[in-house]
């Protein structure tokens, strides 16, 4: 079996959306119709200042929060706290 090697330079950073409230929802739609996205989930940004959608990997960052820095794309995923 041939091993699949992924070049780290080819992996795109998550889409980053800056928000002003700690409770956000995501349905994955963005530029596509909502019907083509994913089920709507509600996410709560905690003391880290950001949360990632478990479906589409969008990263929601609290504006002026602790994670609102240029290095936000390199921080580890935080998808806990997602609820339907």
Could you characterize what this model shows?
This protein is mainly beta and 84 residues long. Helix content is 0%, strand content 23%. A three-stranded mixed beta sheet has the order 1-5-4, with no helix packed on it. A two-stranded antiparallel sheet has the order 2-3. A hairpin with a 6-residue loop joins strand 4 (50-52) and strand 5. The radius of gyration is 14 Å and the shape is globular. The mean pLDDT is 82.
Mean pLDDT: 82
Please state the structural category: mainly beta
Order of strands across the widest beta sheet? Answer: 1-5-4
Estimated share of beta-strand residues: 15-25%
The backbone outline, from C-alpha atoms, is globular
Question: First CA to last CA: what distance?
Answer: 39 Å
What is the count of DSSP helices, taking H or I runs of 4+ residues?
A: 0
Instruction: Tell me the series of helices and strands, N- to C-terminal.
Output: EEEEE
| Fraction in helix | under 10%
The largest sheet is: 3 strands, mixed
Radius of gyration: 14 Å
Tell me the total number of β-strands.
Answer: 5
The unreliable regions are: none
């Amino acid at each position: 079996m041939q091993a699949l090697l992924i070049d780290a330079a080819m992996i795109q950073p998550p889409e980053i959306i800056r928000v002003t409230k700690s409770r956000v929802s995501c349905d994955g739609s963005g530029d596509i119709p909502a019907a083509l996205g994913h089920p709507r989930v509600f996410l709560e940004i905690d003391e880290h200042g950001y949360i990632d959608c478990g479906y589409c990997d969008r990263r929601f960052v609290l504006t002026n929060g602790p994670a609102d820095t240029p290095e936000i794309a390199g921080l580890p995923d935080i998808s806990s706290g997602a609820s339907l």
